[in-house]
Amino acid sequence: GDSVTQMEGPVTLSEEAFLTINCTYTATGYPSLFWYVQYPGEGLQLLLKATKADDKGSNKGFEATYRKETTSFHLEKGSVQVSDSAVYFCALQYTGTASKLTFGTGTRLQVTL
Amino acid sequence: ETGVTQSPTHLIKTRGQQVTLRCSSQSGHNTVSWYQQALGQGPQFIFQYYREEENGRGNFPPRFSGLQFPNYSSELNVNALELDDSALYLCASSFWDRVSYEQYFGPGTRLTVT
Question: For A98, which of B56, B90, B102 is closest by C-beta distance?
Fold first, then answer.
């Protein structure tokens, strides 16, 4: 079945460091790919998405490129801030009946001063 | 514009009891999905409702059931609660943007079963 694999956390970085969180997926078709962020005690917020191969999603300095050849959708940010500390979830979705999201297990990011 | 809201925020129930969780979808969204998020895990899809009909279901037993109302708000009902049902329950409303269904999540209901 379809699945999403994320790098295990926690990832601990100093402020202004470069961030990469790896995400790979297994899918039989051509899903849309998403990154969601969850701050402590809150629900999930959509961070960015890409709906077809080679699309780049970007938001708030975060970027991810849909790589069909490597089945990957790695999240990157050039300079992290303490306020970016959260759990990040990679997810895939097929469009159609019950367009459910299939999530990875999440990667906790902790940014220190 | 009001986002997705859920009630209650927290709930403690005893094994064997029944619980109802509520969700109000974002304005203009006619599809509601429910997810279960166990501690330290990613959310797992329970089911989805579209125009008051169940539109798909994940790998959850029948004691998990739901409803969607004409105003697109929704309920999740869980009967015969088990300890493993302790989790954060997330509701997400969505719309079709011609390319994908962007799902907008509420803050969740934290259910503890003792």
Answer: B56
- How much is the average pLDDT of B21-28? 92
Amino acid type, B36 = Q
- Give the pLDDT confidence of B43-89 residue by residue, as tens digits: 999 999 988 999 899 999 999 999 999 988 999 999 999 999 999 99
- Residue A42 corresponds to which tokens in the numbers above? 């809150």
The two tokens of residue B85 are 């049902």
Measured CA to CA, the distance from residue A8 to residue A87 in angstroms comes to 11
CB B110 within 8 A of CB B11: yes
Nearest C-alpha of chain A: how many angstroms from B96? 9
Of B33, B44, B107, the CB nearest to A42: B107
User: Judging by DSSP bridges, how do beta strands A11-14 and A107-112 pair with one another?
Assistant: parallel
CA distance B102 to B25: 13
> H or E stretch including A50?
strand A44-50
Pairing of strands A101-103, A86-93: antiparallel
CA distance readout (Å), B29 to A104, B33, B90, B102: 25, 11, 16, 10
Determine the pLDDT at residue B106. Answer: 94
Mean pLDDT score, A101-105: 95
Q: Which residues of chain A are within 8 Å of residue B47 when distances are taken between CB atoms? A: 98
